[in-house]
Design brief:
Number of domains: 3
Pfam family, one: BPD_transp_1
Keywords: Cell membrane, Membrane, Transmembrane, Transmembrane helix, Transport
CATH class of the largest domain: Mainly Alpha
Helix content: 55-70%
Distance between the termini: 65 Å
Order of helices and strands: HHHHHHHHHEEHHHHHHHHHHH
Structural class: mainly alpha
InterPro entries: MetI-like, MetI-like_sf
Oligomer: single chain
Number of helices: 20
Protein name: ABC transporter permease
Membrane topology: Multi-pass membrane protein
Strand order of the largest sheet: 1-2
Radius of gyration: 33 Å
């Protein structure tokens, strides 16, 4: 009996195969359509958000001043050990380059950058440049030492070599109160110059206090809105959203009027007999806390309300019907389901607070200024883009760490509670 060979391949005109191909083509067209719809937003985010952040982060490590002003000197110093004075070629190259850039902005920026590493370097560079060019036949090494004896100091030349790289960690280390010592090792900044870790700690602490205050005030409001009838809840929502319709600057100015010594708050406290003299409520941390809680409170209420609105009241009624007291039912049944809103609202308020500038600048004293104030200071006044970018990078890194912690720990642990 002849054996029949069964073909495992489908016939060429199999309708099942044709249907699968049409489904795959339809799926590809659907994905291409979705991609075309998302593409404008993706381009907008890349141009208006990702590219500026990347450019700012590059500024924090960019170091073009000395590298662009003294390339020949740096080429000679590249193979210099640094244990003794550099060779005569380094002195000759420095005199040629100082002569070439004398009187140009390039000289000023290079001297300013060197001065950040070693105080007094700017006056040395400017003093030496004014003596350029040297007379023909003059020994450059002896001439520089006669102009200023500091040119016979090995540390001066080490500074030129250290700052000659096109990229540097100087600004990032300074933002963390760290520096590189003469031996090239990582060291802490002297206590009299160490300020940025204190500023970062102050920023985190003030942001935490504001977030906790917003949570304590916003939780009852969100709970009331979630359990009121629809018409009353909508009216209360209008009052919550009302601050969004007013400029932040106007709200801060209003708080200055209310909290000053002759303001309405102090007048009310004196009239009620609570105090005998006006309290100092402005230009200190109390005024900053009050204004920032008022401004950021809606960012806490709205996430809480969105989560509480989705919690069925059946859970509470079931717990109480089984003999659980009302407060214990609330704590054991209702409160765990609000944790996603608490986490989202607290994270949102905390992150926004870390980057606030106007409110502490107008309502606070120098002891209340946060990282954003110093970023604006280096950007607008000293024009030190590297330091401003480094502080911004530290602030961005802290924000990302908080977000990752929330997403991996709190978000994962709270997801089952919300379902």
């Amino acid at each position: 009996m002849p054996t029949e060979t069964l073909s495992l391949s489908a016939p060429p005109n199999d309708p099942v195969v044709g249907l699968k191909q049409r489904l795959r083509r339809a799926e590809r067209r659907r994905k291409l359509l979705y991609g075309a719809l998302i593409l404008p937003l993706a381009l907008f985010l890349a141009i208006a958000f990702i590219w500026p952040i990347a450019a700012l982060l590059k500024r924090s490590v960019d170091n073009p001043e000395v590298h662009g002003a003294l390339p020949q000197t740096l080429a000679v110093l590249k193979h210099w050990s640094g244990d003794e004075l550099p060779p005569a070629e380094a002195y000759a190259a420095l005199t040629r380059e100082l002569t070439a850039i004398r009187g140009t902005p390039e000289l000023g920026t290079a001297a300013k950058r060197l001065n950040r590493e070693t105080p007094g370097y700017r006056s040395l560079i400017m003093k030496t440049a004014r003596k350029m060019p040297l007379d023909d036949g003059v020994d450059p090494q002896g001439a520089l030492m006669s102009i200023d004896s500091r040119w016979s100091d090995v540390d001066i030349w080490q500074t030129i070599k250290r700052t000659g790289s096109p990229y540097t960690a100087f600004y990032m280390l300074s933002a963390l109160d760290l520096t590189i010592d003469a031996d090239g090792d990582l060291a802490a900044t002297p206590p009299e110059e160490s300020i940025y870790l204190d500023i970062l700690g102050r920023t985190f602490w003030m942001s935490l206090i504001v977030a906790v205050c917003c949570l304590l005030l916003g939780f009852p409001v969100a709970y009331l809105m979630a359990n009121l009838p629809q018409d009353k809840s909508n009216n209360l929502m209008i009052f919550v959203l009302l601050p969004f319709w007013t400029s932040v600057l106007v709200r801060v100015a209003a708080w200055i009027v209310l909290l000053q010594n002759d303001g309405l708050v102090n007048q009310a406290l004196i009239a009620l007999g609570i105090t005998d003299a006006p309290l100092q409520l402005v230009f200190n941390r109390i005024g900053v806390y009050i204004a920032m809680v008022h401004i950021l409170l809606p960012f806490m209420v709205l996430p809480l309300y969105s989560v509480m609105k989705g919690i069925s009241p059946v859970y509470m009624r079931a717990a109480m019907s089984l003999g659980c007291p009302p407060f214990k039912s609330f704590w054991k049944v209702y409160f765990p389901q609000t944790l996603p809103g608490i986490g989202a609202g607290s994270l949102l308020v905390f992150i926004i607070c870390m980057g606030y500038y106007i409110t502490p600048a107008l309502l606070g004293s120098p002891q209340e200024q946060m990282v954003s104030y110093f970023i604006a200071f280096y950007t607008n006044q000293t024009i030190n883009w590297g330091m401003a970018a480094a502080l911004s990078a530290v602030l961005l890194a802290a924000t990302l760490v908080l977000y990752v912690f929330y997403a991996r720990r709190l978000g994962a642990s709270q997801a089952p509670a919300g379902r």
